[in-house]
C-alpha cells in the first residue's frame, strides 16, 4: 500500500461552503453543518484496502460505490463522518435518539434556561388520524376553521406552559420580588414536548444513510422527515455518487419475499414477452453494469448466482 | 472444557419470586422484572473461559468476582442479561435513553392514546436551584407555602395539557359531536415532559452497572435516582457478590489523580506512623486478599506493580 | 398494561432439550447452546408495547412476526437473547468477531496453553481460486492427487507449528531438561490461523439474524457458513415462526433497485397477461395477507403506498 | 448559540504535518495518520452546548477539559474523531478488534495475496512465562543462546509456512508448471498469527482514550503496547491538554475501594501531621483548582461532596 507519500486532508469545496450555515427546518429549528471527515475517495480507499490488489484495476469509482451499496458492504461507508448542530422539538429528538450508533451532546435544561421556543404546526400540517395507517395522518377531514382552532390552542397551551416555567425559575429582582428560583431540572418538567432543544450530532455515513432511509420514509412522522430531507441535501453535496446509489438501491428499491419471487418468476416464465422486453430494456441501459444485468436476470429466473 | 454434559438453565429463586412484580417508583411509575439470563456462576464461567486452565484452581468465586470488578475486566459481566418493564416520566426517559448499549421497545404515542398520567413532585422534592451545583437542587430556600403553590401549578398545568389532548384526539360520539380526531402523533406534542411513558428495557449486567454508577450517583437528578435505587435492589437479589463488589469498587471507591497521588505519597512517606497504621489495619482485614493488600500498599508507595 | 400479574420465565422445551449439547462443526469445532432469554411471545410482547392499544386486536401472532420482519421493525427481535459456546478456528473467529453488537469471552492464549487442535479441510473442500468470484472457490480444477497433497501439507505444517509451540512452552521436567518456558503470549504467535479457539458468544435475536443473513450466504467462506447453518437449526427450534419469516423475507428475498423496478414495471404494464397471472396466484396464496398482496401489487405497478 | 456565523473546518497544524507519515512499529508494522476531525475547541464547543449559558463564563479551557476527564463526562470527547492506517501482526489485531466502538476496514486475504511479512520478536523481547503475572513475561530466565535459538526457530517456522502458502496459491507459469492455484481463503489458513495484516481504523477520541488506557497499560502484551504508545504520541500532538488530563486522571491515577478508603481515612485522622502536609502541598500546587482541592480533601476526610 502507498505508505511513503504524505497526505493532505480530504476536503469537499461544496461542503466547505456550507459550514456553519443554519438550514431552517420547522419554525425555529435548523440543521447546521459543523464539520465532516472524508469524501468519496476516502470511502473508496477503505473499500480497496479490503479488496487489496485484487481490485486495484477497478478504475470505475462510481461503479465500485454502487457495488458497495448494492451488496450492503457497508464498512467503507463508515469511514466518512459528519457533525451537525441541530435545533429540534423534543418529540422529534426522542425519535432521532433511538439511532444509537451516533455521538450526541445535547443542551441540558438542568444547567441552563430554555428559550420560549416551541413548535406549532402550520395549518396544512394539522390533520386527522389516518384510519389506514395507525401511526399516520389523513389528508382530509378537518375544516380550515378546525385547523385554525387547533393551531391557536397549541399556541396558547405552549405559552401558558412557558409562563409557568418563567415564573418558577425567576430568581428575583433587586427591588421587591424574591422569585421562586425553582431548580431548573424541576421547573422544566411541565414544558411541552414541542419545546425546542439543541444538540451536536456526529455520525458515520453508513449509519447516517440508515437513519435517512427510515426517517425520510413516507411512514416517518412529517416533522422528522423534514429534518431527514434537509440532511439528504447535504449528503448530496458531500458524496454525490453515494447519494445516487442510495436513492437507487435504498429509497427507490423494492424487496420481494421468497413467496413473491416465486409468483413473479412463474408469471414471467409464463409470459415470455415480458422477459424479452426486460432484456431489451437492459440492453439499452447506460447505467447498469454487465454484472448487475446478469444478477437481475438470474434473480428473475430464479438461479442463485448474484454476486 | 466441559462439553459433554447437558445443562439446565441457570436460575435464581430470589429473582423468580420477583418476576412480574411492579416496584412502585414516583407517583405512577414502576420497575418490573420481566426476565433475566444468567447468574453469578454464569459470570464466573465466562471469566474462566478467558483464563482457561491457568485459573481453574481459583476456587474462590467471590474473590474472582471482586478481581473482575477491581480490574475492570468487564466482559464476563456482559454474559448476564436482564429485562425490565418500566413506567417513567418522559424527562427521565430522555436521560435514561442516553445509555446506548441496551435494547428498548417504547410505547408509541403515534399509534396509541396516552393515559392522563403525569408526574407531580412531592412537596419535599420541590427545591430551589443550587448555587454550588449548577445542575442540582438546594435543600433550603422555599417556604412550605411556596412548595404548595408550585405543586398546585404543576398539577393544574398538566391537567390543562391533558384536557387539550383529549379534546384534540376525541373522535366523536354517535349523537352529535363529530370530534376533531387530530392525528395522535400531533395531538401529543403539547403534553408535558412529565407525562408517563412505558418501555421494555433489556441490558447486560456490565452496562447496567455502568448505568447505575451514573444514575444512582448523588449528582443524578433525584427522579432517575429513584429508578436506579430500585434497580439496585433487584441487582442485589440477582448477583449478591457482584453487588457487594460494585458498591465497594465503584460506588464507595475514590480515584486520585497522578498529582494527588504524588501529594498523598509524600505525606505518607513523611509521616511513617500513618503507614504503620494502614499496614496494621490491612493485617486485620478479613476481606482483602493478599494480592489486594500488596496492590494497595504499592499504590501508596508509588511503585507500579499492581496486578 | 398488565402489571398486576406475576410471571414465570418464558421457556422453550425444544431449546431446554438442546442445552449443553455440542453440535459438531468442522473437525474439532462445535456450537453449544448455553442459555437463552425469551421466546416468540416475548418478541410479540415487546412489539405490542410499542403499538399499544392500537394493535391489541391483532390476534394473529404469526402475522405480526411476519409484519415485523417485512418492515424491518427490528427492535422487538432485540428482546430475545441467546448464549452459545463455540469452538472454531482462528480465521473463522476473525470473520465472526467483525459483528460488533455481541458479547464475547474468548479463551486467552496469554493465560492458558492451547491444545494441539487445528483445522485441516476435508478433501472435497480443497478447491481452486474462483475466477468469477474474487473471494471464493471454484469447484473444478484440482485432481484428487492434488487435494491429497494439499491436505497432507496442511497437516504437516500444523503439526510442525505445534511441535515448536510445545518446545517453546515446555517448562522442564524433574530429571534433566530445564525447558525454555517461553511466555505463552509469545510462544503462540507462530501457531497457524487454523488453530482452534473457544468463546462464549451472546447476542440478541435481531443481531443474530443479521449475522446469519451474511454468514449463511453463499458468498461467505464455507467454514463460517457451516457454523451459521448449525446456528440456523437452533434458531428454528427456538422461534419457528420468526425463522420462517426470516427465510422468506431475508434469505429467499430479492431486492430490485429503482432502475430495475422501472424496467420490471414497464415490462409488466406492456404484458398484461403476466400481471393477470400474478393476481391469480396471489388469490390462491394461503399465506399472504391482504395487506401484503396490496403492497406487492402496488410495488409492481409503481405506486408508493406500501404500508 | 452562535448560528449566524459561517465556519471553517478546525485543523491542527501539528497533525497536518503528520498526515500520511508511517510511524514504524515492530518490524514491518506502522501507524499512519490518515485524517482527523475536530480539535480541543471542538470538544469544548460540545461540552458547552450541554452546559449552555450556565457555564459560558468558564473562560479556562484547560480547566474545563480537566473537569470533563475527572468527572468522566465523556460525550464531548466523542466529538473528535481520528482515522489511522495500521499494519500489525494478526495476534495484535485480534486483541485490538475487541474494542467494538470503532470502524474498521481490513485487508482481506480472501481477495488478495499476503506479502511474506511476519513478526519475529527482537532478542530482548523473548522472555519466559511470568510466575507472578499469569498473562505476562518474566524479565529473567533465558540465556542469550536460548533467545537466539527461539528467534531462529520463529524465523524458520514463519518462512516454512510462507513457502507452503506460496506453493498453494501459485497459479502457474507459461512454460510448464500449472500451479495448484488453491483458493486464497484456504491457502492462508496455515499462515502464522504473526503474519502482518493492515486496516483503516477510525475511532472517536473518548473510545480511543479508553483503548489506550487498556493497551498502554503495563499488563497489556508488549507488542500492542508498542502501538498504543505510538498512538499516544499522536494524541499529544492533536489535543495536548486532553492528553495531559488523560495522563493525570487515567494513566497515573489510582482508585481505592470503599474498604481501602476507610483504612486510609482512619490512618490520616490518626496522624494529623500527614493531613497538614497534604494541605500544605495543595496550597503550593499551581495546577489544582479550588474545586479539585476541596474534592480531594473531602475524599480523604470521608464526606460525600465532590462535585
Q: Notable features of this structure?
A:
homotetramer; 307 residues; alpha+beta; Gyrase A, domain 2; 2 domains; 12 helices; 46% helix
How many helix segments of chain A? 12
Q: Which CATH architecture of the largest domain in chain A is right? A: 2-Layer Sandwich
Mean pLDDT of chain A: 90
Please outline the major beta sheet of chain A. 5 strands, antiparallel
Number of strands of chain A: 8
Based on Cα principal axes, name the global outline of chain A.
flat
Based on CA atoms alone, the radius of gyration of chain A comes out at 25 Å
Number of domains of chain A: 2
Order of helices and strands of chain A: HEEHHEHEEEHHEHHHEHHH
Structural class of chain A: alpha+beta
Low-confidence stretches of chain A: 54-58
Amino acid at each position: 500500500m502507498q505508505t511513503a507519500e504524505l497526505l493532505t486532508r480530504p476536503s469537499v469545496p461544496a461542503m466547505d461552503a456550507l459550514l456553519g450555515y443554519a438550514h431552517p427546518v420547522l419554525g425555529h429549528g435548523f440543521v447546521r453543518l459543523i464539520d465532516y471527515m472524508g469524501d468519496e475517495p476516502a470511502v473508496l480507499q477503505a473499500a480497496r484496502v479490503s479488496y487489496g490488489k485484487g481490485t486495484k484495476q477497478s478504475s470505475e469509482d462510481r461503479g465500485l460505490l454502487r457495488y458497495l451499496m448494492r451488496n450492503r458492504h457497508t464498512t467503507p461507508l463508515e469511514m466518512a463522518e459528519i457533525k451537525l448542530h441541530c435545533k429540534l422539538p423534543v418529540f422529534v429528538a426522542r425519535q432521532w435518539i433511538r439511532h444509537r450508533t451516533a455521538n450526541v451532546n445535547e443542551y441540558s435544561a438542568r444547567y441552563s434556561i430554555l428559550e420560549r421556543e416551541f413548535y406549532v404546526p402550520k395549518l396544512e400540517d394539522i390533520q386527522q388520524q389516518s384510519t389506514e395507517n395507525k401511526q399516520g395522518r389523513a389528508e382530509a377531514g378537518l375544516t380550515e376553521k378546525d385547523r385554525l382552532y387547533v393551531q391557536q390552542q397549541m399556541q396558547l397551551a405552549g405559552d401558558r406552559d412557558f409562563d409557568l416555567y418563567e415564573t418558577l425559575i425567576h430568581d428575583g429582582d433587586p427591588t421587591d420580588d424574591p422569585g421562586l428560583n425553582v431548580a431548573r431540572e424541576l421547573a422544566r418538567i411541565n414544558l411541552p414536548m414541542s419545546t425546542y432543544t439543541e444538540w451536536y450530532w456526529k455520525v458515520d455515513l453508513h449509519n447516517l444513510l440508515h437513519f435517512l432511509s427510515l426517517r425520510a420514509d413516507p411512514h416517518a412522522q412529517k416533522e422528522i422527515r423534514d429534518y431527514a430531507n434537509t440532511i439528504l441535501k447535504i449528503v448530496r453535496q458531500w458524496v454525490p455518487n453515494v447519494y445516487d446509489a442510495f436513492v437507487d438501491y435504498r429509497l427507490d428499491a423494492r424487496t420481494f419475499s421468497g413467496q413473491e419471487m416465486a409468483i413473479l418468476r412463474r408469471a414471467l416464465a409464463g409470459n415470455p414477452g415480458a422477459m424479452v422486453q426486460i432484456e431489451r430494456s437492459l440492453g439499452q441501459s447506460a447505467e447498469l453494469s454487465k454484472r448487475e444485468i446478469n444478477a437481475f436476470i438470474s434473480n428473475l429466473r430464479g438461479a442463485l448466482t448474484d454476486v
